[in-house]
Design goal:
Structural class: alpha+beta
Number of domains: 2
CATH architecture of the largest domain: 2-Layer Sandwich
Number of strands: 7
Mean pLDDT: 84
CATH topology of the largest domain: TATA-Binding Protein
Distance between the termini: 66 Å
Strand content: 25-35%
Shape: elongated
Low-confidence stretches: none
Number of helices: 4
Helix content: 25-40%
Order of helices and strands: HHEEEHEEEEH
CATH class of the largest domain: Alpha Beta
CATH superfamily of the largest domain: Kinase associated domain 1, KA1
Largest sheet: 7 strands, mixed
Length: 162
């Protein structure tokens, strides 16, 4: 085997090992995928373009978008979100309380982890809204992935509940 072939083979084996162990590598480099709970009223953002916050205007001071009002109770909104998330790839629910939930979703190819915090807010017995904060664990920019995710989730809720 020539030196060039040996180098190519070694490089391919190394790449295969990195690809196979990519989720463990991200934990070593950046810590656990789940970034923990969020206090929406006192949220501290990184300042990097790798997150997106949708929130009711009177809850979050630094939201990227205002959350819509849905013609559902907060419990119905939660159930509707659960139904709409059934086909989301690489999504794991990490934590659930009566008013909030947290998920980790990993990208398809490299398994970069994003943490998504969701809070269901009752406005009345028959109306509610939602706060969603989606943020990347790795990298400076997410190329719009978190914004697209939040908008996709809210659009699915809006389609199910016009």
């Amino acid at each position: 085997m020539t030196l060039t072939r040996a180098a190519i083979l070694a490089g391919l084996i190394g790449l295969a090992l990195v690809f196979a162990a990519r989720e463990q590598i991200w934990v070593i480099l950046a810590g656990p995928a789940d970034q923990g709970a969020v206090d929406f009223a006192n949220i501290t953002r990184s300042g990097k373009p790798n997150d997106f916050l949708m929130c009711p205007k009177d809850l979050c001071a630094d939201a990227d978008a205002q959350a819509p009002v849905f013609p559902l109770s907060a419990d119905e909104l939660r159930a509707s979100l659960h139904a709409s998330l059934q086909n989301e790839p690489h999504l794991t629910r990490m934590d659930e309380t009566t008013s909030a939930e947290r998920y980790v979703q990993k990208t398809a190819l490299m398994r970069f982890p994003d943490t998504i915090s969701v809070r269901f807010i009752a406005l009345s017995a028959t109306t509610s809204t939602i706060a969603i904060y989606s943020r990347s664990r790795l990298g400076y920019s997410d190329l719009g992935v978190n914004k697209a995710r939040v908008e996709r989730w809210v659009a699915a809720l809006s389609e199910q509940n016009p």
